[in-house]
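FORM 12-B: Structure-to-Sequence Request
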């Protein structure tokens, strides 16, 4: 079983979607972030310790870090005889640029310790402001696709997964929530340090910190996976009601897609309203407007949960493949209603197919480009592509293929060909000619025109 946790050789030196230069030559194995945050003045300070190995010899290297955070010190340490030394560092264009005293030989393992501080703010991007954001009373982080450098130095591309330990101190009574499991909580004077460990490979855009005056609710159901929410005390009843089906969703998806990939699932509901909910690894973030007790956002509660499989456990190699995240997450909404409300996914498919037919057919699902990366057509046409595969293979084989694809890509990085390989194998077993699969694939992903509405093969 091959698992890609480091750069697949994507051609070029720049991410064509984010416009950010790649940081080439190394892989970050883990990030240990030891941070202090002050809500009032919005001040963040601390140290990031990165464990790296390099696949090229390095005289210099870069990391992504926003200019609003100033680095005061960088030190390096080696393991196995070689001791790298940082000769100098500077910051420009949201990059931290390091030069070493001597070249680090290829395949070394070394550590960087980076001390930094500043007032974090979101990065301005083509998709709006993303990353660390101040709330009325706290802060949130939502970094998709490239906002992670707004709060820590990182190699900010989706295929570069690493393990994380995140410690953040804040004034009482603020609660700090981050990815992974809470492994320690230490009070000292008027402040408390919250220590989380995320022991599964995670892309930098999915790393998050939430700070607010939250209280915890247990939303666990009959299943094994703990489900919890953090919400402002005055919203607790509404949140309990709005997220009543969260555990049932998790049970359903675990059955359809394979075991839930993380030890627990958390939702954070902020006091502020948020335009859209956001996914992070092991948790999702909703605004108070998504929990008004009317169940208006049930589909998004299902959608965000499904990203734990599609997007988080199965990460993207590059943003071009965003439909692998959003198409499956949108289809997961339809599956939820198929099971909970007796509404066949085929009916949802028909409804959104008819909507798509009214819209311009000028988008390439397989490579939509940065401007259309989060266009609703990517979500809906992506889900219709998944539905077309279901129609082609039949229910039993389709879900078996889905579970194989999810299992093979678990905690790693996937590309469309990984899905296609499973589909082709199954089609072959059913004596469906390869050309039929190739045509479906090409029509939905690499033609702009909307293909015929998918119908079951027999
Ligand atoms: Zn989504």
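FORM 12-B RESPONSE
SEQUENCE OUT:
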């Amino acid at each position: 079983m091959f698992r890609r946790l480091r750069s697949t050789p994507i051609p070029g030196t720049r991410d064509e979607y984010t416009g950010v230069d790649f940081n080439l030559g190394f892989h970050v194995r883990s990030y240990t972030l030891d941070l202090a945050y002050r809500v009032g003045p919005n001040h963040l300070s601390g140290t990031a310790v990165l464990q790296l190995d390099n696949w090229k010899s390095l005289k210099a290297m870069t990391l992504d870090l926003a200019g609003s955070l100033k680095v005061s010190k960088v030190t390096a340490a080696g393991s196995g005889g070689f001791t790298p030394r940082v000769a100098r560092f500077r910051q420009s264009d949201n990059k931290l640029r390091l030069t070493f005293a001597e070249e680090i030989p290829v395949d070394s393992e070394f550590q960087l310790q980076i001390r930094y501080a500043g007032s974090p703010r979101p990065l301005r991007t083509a998709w709006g402001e993303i990353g660390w954001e101040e709330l009325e009373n706290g802060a949130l982080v939502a970094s998709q696709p490239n906002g992670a450098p707004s709060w820590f130095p990182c190699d900010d591309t989706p295929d570069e997964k690493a393990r994380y330990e995140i410690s953040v101190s804040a004034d009482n009574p603020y609660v700090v929530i981050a990815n992974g499991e809470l492994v320690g909580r230490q009070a000292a004077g008027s402040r408390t340090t919250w220590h989380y460990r995320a022991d599964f490979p995670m892309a930098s855009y999915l790393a998050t910190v939430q700070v607010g005056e939250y209280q915890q609710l247990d939303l666990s159901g009959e299943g094994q996976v703990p489900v919890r929410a953090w919400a402002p005390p005055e919203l607790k009843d509404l949140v309990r009601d709005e997220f009543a089906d969260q555990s049932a969703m998790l049970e359903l998806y675990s059955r359809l897609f394979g075991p839930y990939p993380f030890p627990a699932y958390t939702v954070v509901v902020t006091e502020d309203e948020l335009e859209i909910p956001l996914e992070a690894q092991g948790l999702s973030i909703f605004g108070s407007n998504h929990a008004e007790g009317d169940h208006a956002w049930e589909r998004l509660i299902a959608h965000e949960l499904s990203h734990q499989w599609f997007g988080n456990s199965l990460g993207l190699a590059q943003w071009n493949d965003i439909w692998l995240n959003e198409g499956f997450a949108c289809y997961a909404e339809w599956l939820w209603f198929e099971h909970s409300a007796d509404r066949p996914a085929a009916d949802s498919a028909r409804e959104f197919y008819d909507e798509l037919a009214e819209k311009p057919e000028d988008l390439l699902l397989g490579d939509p480009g940065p401007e259309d990366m989060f266009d609703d057509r990517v979500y809906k046409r992506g889900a219709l592509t998944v539905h077309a595969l279901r129609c082609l293979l039949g229910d039993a084989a389709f879900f078996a293929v889905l579970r194989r694809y999810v299992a093979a890509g678990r905690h790693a990085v996937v590309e469309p060909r990984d899905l296609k390989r499973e589909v082709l194998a199954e089609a072959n077993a059913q004596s469906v000619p390869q050309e039929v699969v190739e045509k479906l694939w090409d029509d939905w992903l690499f033609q702009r025109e909307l293909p015929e509405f998918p119908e079951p093969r027999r």
